[in-house]
Amino acid sequence: MSEDALIPPRVARMVPYKPGKPLEELERELGVTNAIKLASNENPLGPSPKVVEAVANAAKGLNFYPDGAAFALRSALAERHGVPLEEVVLGNGSNELIDLACRTFPDAGDHCVFGKPSFVCYWLGCTAAGVDYTEVPLKENLHWDLEAMAAAVTEKTKLLFLANPNNPTGSYVGRAELEAFLKAVPERVVVVMDEAYYGLADAEDYASGLDLRHTRERLLVFRTFSKTHGIAGLRVGYAVGPAPLVDALNRMRAPFNVNLLGQIGALAALKDEAHVERYIAMNRTERTRVSRALTELGLSVAPSQANFVLVRFERPGVEVYDALLRDGVIVRPMPPPIETSLRITIGTPEQNDRMLAAVAKLKKGD
Ligand SMILES: Cc1ncc(COP(=O)(O)O)c(C=O)c1O
pLDDT 10s digit of each residue in the chain, 366 long? Predict the structure, then answer.
């Protein structure tokens, strides 16, 4: 049988997710050593030492399956957010929850709405599930066009994703506008507020979906341990929302979707608030410094509420990306329509100095 007959069109349309280039790959391909990776919005301070200890201790029990209901971690999260246990479900990273939402709420022929540019996994999730979708362009200033998003909702729309702050722009939507939007979207639609960068946003009018649950019944808030908690490698995310929606996601998830070390590590990370706060404070200072320094180099930097900045170079981003790679700095090229921009993760002060020096060198050569 030919492959054409075997692979359904929705699978053929997909492209594998392309993550930030790993350090080892750069060394292998270009022989560049001592490189720094500012490409995947990871926490440059690393995990809390308490997480490392808890995970090392838990490794002795790896012969056992983990708790399939993840009772300890879900209970801690339910307590943290002041919600019943039935309103919390875990994912293998919030990525898995995005995928699950696309497979759970829309049926064949149904429709989903999300922004562009935004997190590519909304597109991947919909395409994999065979769900129709509308990508709503952001405004000129890279802010959400909430009016256009509400207008894109059709009778078939079952799901809508809104990342706040957004990746890859770092922009956010403030409380008043968000509240009005959540009320305006028809009740039948499940709205997912993706808050992967929660904690890093410090604008006065930033509001979490968890504080806006009164606006609509069908609201899910996705959070992750990959960013502020510094354990992207353990793959733990969670959703908070009304019990019937959480129950539906729970039915669709694979058994033991969050592994033993992930459950133990996330619980330890949740308890070490000081570690998270240290990172948030460093990111705030460095985000301001890096944004200013890049602006002084004549570049256009989008105001960011996250742990990265989107920087416009006025020439193909891949050219700049390649040049920075050779200097041992890995950043992230962007697809159209923002292919002249690069997304740069905010690192430690030393890493940022190195990145700024590499960009300054390039600008001099312009
Ligand atoms: C907006 C957004 N949502 C979700 C994720 C996925 O995070 P994870 O699967 O590591 O929890 C990311 C990761 O970069 C992101 O930027």
Answer: 566 689 988 889 888 888 888 898 988 888 888 899 999 999 999 999 999 999 999 999 999 999 999 999 999 999 999 999 999 999 999 999 999 999 999 998 899 999 999 999 999 999 999 999 999 999 988 999 999 999 999 999 999 999 999 999 999 999 999 999 999 999 999 999 999 999 999 999 999 999 999 999 999 999 999 999 999 999 999 999 999 999 999 999 999 999 999 999 999 999 999 999 999 999 999 999 999 999 999 999 999 999 999 999 989 999 999 999 999 999 999 999 999 999 999 999 999 999 999 999 998 876
Q: Considering its fold, how many domains does the chain have in total?
A: 2
Query: Does 11 fall in a domain?
Result: no
Query: For residue 38, what are the domain limits?
Result: 20-46+274-364
CB of 237 shorter than 6 A to ligand 1: yes
Residue whose structure tokens are 């033993």: 260
pTM tops 0.90, yes or no: yes
Whether 263 and 301 map to the same domain: the answer is no
CA of 224 to the centre of ligand 1 (A): 7
For ligand 1, atom 12, the nearest C-alpha belongs to 196
How deeply is 101 buried, as exposed, middle or buried, from its count of CB atoms within 10 A (0-12, 13-18, 19+)? buried
User: 2 in a domain, yes or no?
Assistant: no
Cis peptide, bond prior to residue 19, ω within 30 of zero: no
Is the CB of 170 inside a 6 Å radius of any atom of ligand 1? no
Return all residues near 213 (Cβ < 8 A) that are at least 6 apart: 219
Separation between Cα atoms, residue 60 and residue 65, nearest integer Å: 12
